[in-house]
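pasting for the record
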Amino acid sequence: MIVKFFMFNCFMCFLRRLFILFTIISFSYFLWAADYSIEDGYTVVEAIAYLEEKHDVVIFYDERWFEGKTISKEILDLPLTEAIYLIIRGENYSVYFFTGNVALFPRESGTDYRPDATADRIIIGNTLEMGRYPRVTINGRVIDGGTGEPVVGAAIYSFKTGNGVATDGDGNFEWRLPVGDHRLNITSMGYQQTIYNVLVASEGYVEFQLFEGALELSLYTITAERAEEQITSTQMSIIRLDAQTLKEIPGAFGERDIIRAFTMLPGIQSVGEFGTGFNVRGGSADQNLILIEDVPLFNSSHLFGLVSVVNPDMVTGVTMMKAGMPARYGERASSVTEIRKSGVQFDETSLKGGLGLLYSRAHLETPLFKDKVMLSLGGRSSYSNWFLQRLPDSQLMNSEANFYDLSGVLSFYPSSNSTISIFGYQSQDDFLQDGETEHHYTSQLASLRWSYAISPTLFSQFTLGYSNYYNRMRERPDLRPKDAFHLDNAIRYQSAKWNLKYDHSNLFSLNTGAQAIMYDVSPGQIKPIGDESFIQPKTLDNEKGLEMATYLSGQFAIGDDFGIEAGLRFVHFRNLGPASVFLYDENKIRNRNNIIDTLFYDSGQTVWSDWGLEPRISFRYLFSDVNSFKVSYNRNNQYISLLSATAVMTPTDIWQLSNTYLKPIVADQLALGYYHNFNDHTLETSVEGYIRKMRNMPDYISGASLIMNETVETELVSTNGYNFGAELYVNKKEGRLTGWISYTFSASMRRTDEKDPLRQINQNNYFPSDWDRPHNLTINTNYYLSRRWRLNTTFTYSTGRPVTFPELMYNFQGHQAIHYSDRNKYRLSDYHRLDIAITFGENLRVNSRGKGSWTFSIINLYGRKNPFSVFYKQDIPHTENMNRRYSLYKLYIIARPLPTITYNFSI
């Protein structure tokens, strides 16, 4: 204990000094970046002369352009390209780099160097430096050849590498390319397609021009992500969905579904057609951190799992990390998913949406003040009762369900180096189960994010976040007045996070920051409804917790082949009062009858605390430009868990903070992978293996009662376990036929370590977790029949989910008793399904204001009956059930082919 306390104090002392150091650096950079020009600096003429001598180049310009202007001497220590950019910053000049020379041109003179497609070859950079680096970063701009205005969102594609970039709101782009000759294809809506021949010699700047005309759409998929990033990035086990991919992802019921799309990728599973959440590499659904604009979701679906809560129209990018998470991420043990709904600037008002069989949606984008304030609003509303009435289950047929969600992002751009984003989200579900039990649950999210570029290499981001989830279950008084009640539970999350990034170059960068999170959990409150109800009111004590973290990470390149990203995250958690803690007789089984004392804590008083170190390290070795090997290790601590007696997350499950009896989940994961791209990076392949050791996972004992239980710790046991697996992924990214094949072999095992036989699961032997499904296969294809017609097919297969069945039934002292099998001894039958969809896309006319597309799909094409659950039900004995009083029944959600149709529009 003394050693642990000493280590804690030493580490806190180190963090304080580190924070002071970075504060000094940040303040210094802030002062320096506030104004690069100082009175006692060099004149521009003197500075250019110095740069010519230092870099052995000739800079062509007119000295009269910069009369009376001075610059800071620190600029002269920067690389030539950065120095030139800073000299002409704020001036109406463009720059052109060519062999051994630099030329500056005034834009208004009409003599800008704007290369055109008739040029034999455009040289970017200095040919004297050619060969010094195999890859270089080029900067550039795409402008309207007639007006000189920037072209926003232009797609630039390299036929040589098979990757592309898109211009930002100012028409600018940054691109890392191999040195050598390239043919670049540049397209944008409303402009003629143009192809340029370029020689990339070294770092440099170039401007391209496009002219208005009909757009010739190609079949290539242009993404802002570098195609070779899978090879060159130090991070592994990462999935990115950009704007183009989001348009083509297969969905549920003819609708795009981002959460469901993840379950078709390696290492990610769902429990079936009906069920909230997903499982990553054998972990439970509550071990996944889902962030929307930096705020976590505590319920990720509508209609108990049929539809995700994320409106796909508003999403600008999605990133999921299954391993090797950078140190700035924590809170959960299995994965992190970031969903962005901001970051895109637009010049015109647009409206798009869709009409489907389950719900309708709309999304509005409009600039409130040009280039300064942008507003994005979206919403969805359902009419899904007709669907429930056609399901092959009497309880579901007698049920009703409705939902809506609203979200908005207000973005401010006060300056070129500052962005402020305000995000808000509200959703609500109402579900009437079998005409008797009502479920009502809502989610509210909000965030405020300020991003500021202190200097060209130093970036700061500060975020405030709020998330609230509330659930109410209600028994209707008109049907069962003596049992009428409403049961409430909720969780509220508030956070503040600051991140500072120093991005020196592609070879070195640093990240540091801190985060504070306040949890407020209401585990349950039950009240009777009406005077006839026999239900007694009861309220469980609220739980509060404070989680604080600070982190430091760095990314380093050692030569051209080795890359390392290493970090350390320190986390400290305090369970806070007011609270009451029961003490149990340690020599007896932990139950209500063996309580020997109760400890009471005042508001704000520490009830229980814990701290931990979370090391993160990723390593990459490049064999060549097309293949690499990676390995990563990460530790995660999780101080909040979801208590559930089923494999499927439901809105009625209870969130529980770590406390005296429920220790935090600790996960250690080691992963390695080999990556190889073919055909100029248009065909990606990878194989990854992982092993994850986990401790302190809560599980329930047989016959546990978790709802409204003030001694819930008596119903829980702690389990340890391991997950391991191998994942194969093949992704064809371009051409008429695109798609991927994903296969995962995995295992997820758990065991208890209890002395008391009554608290043991399977006699302390290993048993499969609820999410152990050894084989998972997905084949997804997109075939472009023409430029407007696209055929999508998705086939999924997985091993059946583990289940526990009753094996014996007998009478004991006049009561009927049931003996269950070992935990998860049996499995449901294997799951497989084929979905098919055909999309008739938007028209290709440039000047068409309103555009629409149709998607026709058939879910479960060959009518596979995949059991969602299996249960015993009291029955009348007869020959068909072998004269049994209890018969085995299976619940199917989609047991026959289900056709759907969706209309999407944009104005």
